[in-house]
Design brief:
The protein has 5 helices and 10 strands, in the order E-E-E-E-H-E-E-E-E-H-E-H-H-H-E. Helix 4 runs antiparallel to helix 5. The strands form 2 sheets. A 5-stranded antiparallel sheet has the order 1-2-3-4-5, covered by helices on one side. It has a 5-stranded antiparallel sheet with strand order 8-7-6-10-9, with helices on one face. It is α+β, with helices and mostly antiparallel strands. It has helices at about 40-50, 100-110, 125-130, 130-155, 165-205, and strands at about 5, 10-15, 20-25, 30-35, 60, 65-70, 75-85, 85-95, 115-120, 210-215. The longest helix is centred in the C-terminal third of the chain and has 38 residues, at about 165-205. The chain folds into 2 domains: about 5-115, Roll (PH-domain like), CATH 2.30.29; about 125-205.
Length: about 220
């Protein structure tokens, strides 16, 4: 099955990463459908129009419940915000490539016309680097703290008495005790380098934000 297969009754399937598929009908968006069962669900939808029930990995989203869809036209990540009762949910999924990403966005726009607003925002290079810079700052601050704490553990041997702490705090303590200040600095450096690479990529290829939002 290729990136997009168009069947009868306006049923379309789109390839996701990891041998998964998304199925789009005029009423529902079904994501994380395993490749081994996608044909079965396509046949089911041809006869029944909708899917009901709860599934382990597969997510069934009624289009009528969708409040917002966000995506980068140049990327592969699509985020869908929708309501179940009074609760608001967010479901991200990764398309196979940018071509399939563009195809499903066109189909979603076609399905969500009445009562929805479609907008395109082209980021400038300066605006594009804001998020990576913020993340870089967080990585630098967190890395400095963890390096200092790892050095404290290394030089002073940690607390002098038994303490009751949250599991995640104990996990951080034992990891820092194991990797030491040098390990903390190396991890911080790798994280900072990743942020810089991300920033440069966004600067030279700024995102184009697609937003499909339900009108109030």
């Amino acid at each position: 099955m290729s990136g997009t297969d168009i069947g009868v009754n306006n049923i379309e399937s789109f390839a996701l990463r990891g041998d998964k598929f998304a199925i789009l009908t005029s009423k529902q968006l079904i994501v994380e459908v395993d490749k081994s069962v996608v044909d079965k669900w396509l046949e089911h939808l041809k006869a029944n129009e909708t899917i009901t029930g709860e599934f382990n990995e597969m997510k069934v989203i009624d289009l009528a419940a969708v409040t917002k869809i966000e995506a980068n036209q140049k990327g592969v990540l699509i985020g869908v915000t929708y309501k179940t009762g009074e609760d608001e949910n967010y479901e991200p999924f990764f398309m196979k490539d940018e071509t399939v990403n563009e195809e499903i966005l066109k189909s979603l726009r076609r399905c969500l016309q009445d009562g929805y607003t479609y907008s395109v925002t082209e980021y400038s290079p300066l605006k594009a680097i804001v998020l990576p810079l913020v993340v870089l700052g967080i990585v630098a601050v967190a890395g400095t703290f963890f390096t200092w704490f790892a050095n404290l553990i290394h030089t002073q041997g940690g607390p002098r008495r038994t303490m009751r702490v949250q599991v995640w705090v104990a996990a951080i303590y034992w990891v820092l005790k194991w990797i030491g200040p040098t390990g903390a600095m190396i991890i911080t450096g790798i994280g900072a380098l990743a942020c810089i690479v991300w920033m440069v990529k966004r600067m030279f290829n700024p995102p184009v934000k697609i937003l499909i939002a339900k009108n109030n």
